[in-house]
Write a structure and sequence with these properties.
It contains nine helices and ten strands. The chain folds into three domains: about 70 residues, no CATH class; about 60 residues; about 90 residues, no CATH class. A hairpin with a 6-residue loop joins strand 8 and strand 9. The protein has about 325 residues and is α+β, with helices and mostly antiparallel strands. Helix 5 crosses helix 6. It is elongated, with a radius of gyration of 38 Å. The strands form three sheets. Strands 6, 7, 8, 9 and 10 form a five-stranded mixed β-sheet that branches. A three-stranded antiparallel β-sheet has the order 1-2-3.
Amino acid sequence: MNFYDRRKWVWNNVQQSNIKRVTAKRATSRRRFTYTYRFRTPEESGGGLHDVCKPFFLSTLGYDQKSDSAIMRCLQSAPSDSLNPNSDQRGKHVPNNKLDQIKIFAHIFRYNPSVHHYRREHAPNRLYLPSEITIKDMHEHYVQNIEKISIESYGKCVVAKNISFTVLGSEECEECKKFHEHKKTHENGSDIKDCEQCLNHDHHIKRRDETRIAYKSDVEKSLLDETYFYSSADLQKVIMLPGMPGEKTSAFTRRIVAFNETFASLGQTKTKVTALWHEAISGRNASDIASTFWNFFKQHLRDKKHIVIAQLRT
């Protein structure tokens, strides 16, 4: 039987009645009821109820003969005039201090956490907030305007949504970062020459050096031939607007994500052209990025015969 069926069986086989008389010995007793314990015989024997003693009843059910607490809890779970005991309430109790996480999550997303530009491919589920915002500031605003909770409870909700507070603008190349962790495995004297990951990193460094040489070569070419235009392009990290360092109240307003594609010319004429747009205008998929290049060409490079756009990684 499950928990409720066991309780119901005991309820139907133990009769509770008021004590009939109070003797001199029971004058100071706190006992208010008399209990009659019964077992039902098989149907072929009549199926009637037969009274048994309390020790026999407890031992038959596997309880300690000297402890009737399990039986008493069952009988006290509902009034004696009730037909059935109360249902099982285990796991159904709602604590008075249970947090309303929906309200906390809604408050957290008022700060508009977003996927970081440099980690879209490898960490698409990780969200980031500007470095000037802290959990302490967010918690204080929540307590002052919504309800009072502990900072630990608020922090758990932030962690549950996979949100980080990290400055990522100048993060290390992922290939190099992986290699720095990998090279620790060679501290025990293992051979580096046959390590595939070490060879891949050497190739990565070689390509980096070749890229830098080509980058410098383009700078020199731009000085010799004016019909060529050499530039570098890079999609910068997203900008959270409004951004007012030192003004705490600005962090609590509804923020919007702005994107920034920057074109920096090479050579003596150092010019930068920036394409700015926000999420209400468009996103940052392939066609959106291509449109920034197309508008850059039309507005700034009408007289150039040859255009070279490079992206310097690492």
